[in-house]
Amino acid sequence: MSQYEIAVVVGSFRRDSLNRKLANAIVKLAPSEFSFKTLHISDLPLYNQDDDASQAAPVKRLKDEIAAAQGLLFVTPQYNRSVPGVLKNAIDHASRPYGESAWKGKPAGILGASVGAIGTAGAQQHLRNILAYLDVPTLGQPEAFIHAKEGLFDEAGNIGPDSKKCFQHWMDQYIAWVRQHAG
Ligand SMILES: Cc1cc2nc3c(=O)[nH]c(=O)nc-3n(C[C@H](O)[C@H](O)[C@H](O)COP(=O)(O)O)c2cc1C
Fold this sequence. Notes:
The protein is of the alpha/beta class. The chain is built from 5 helices and 5 strands; from the N terminus they run βαβαβαβαβα. Strands 2-1-3-4-5 form a 5-stranded parallel beta sheet, sandwiched between helices. The protein is globular and about 50 Å long. The mean pLDDT is 96. Bound molecules: flavin mononucleotide (FMN).
């Protein structure tokens, strides 16, 4: 049985999302005591503070799943130099009501792939800012600004041979970070 369950948050709903593909591929580089569950965020309503006292069922489910996890893995595209709205919506939902955030203290890692050359650097910096406010200890190094190019994945959807060493190093550091910070 896995000792560490990681909640994965993918910031794209796109059918052929590169970031979902990246999330699915990178978790295969983790050791067997780690299991990964992608959080379902596409059925969340748009956040409205009026609903804080009676959060919708998908919001309660999201918060329960985060609470049950020992760590977080964010894999997100960059939209217009920041995080996609769907990701921010999920973060806002699970941060409320005030004082009852589900995110607090959960160790996190951030990855992101983009067809653009800056490889989600802008989105990741904004996400770090949000997570710092929410008291989420976030792995600083190595950063992973992925410029998605031919060969990033092999035909089976695994990380391709040229990038494997680099991603394995990222995963090893992430695993150490979660072990160090998980309560
Ligand atoms: C609304 C929108 C804004 C975008 N803004 C950026 C951007 O600021 N920088 C960038 O490199 N790519 C940007 N892109 C391109 C995305 O990186 C690209 O669509 C990527 O494949 C999205 O991730 P996904 O494949 O996981 O859905 C944008 C795409 C969309 C739809």
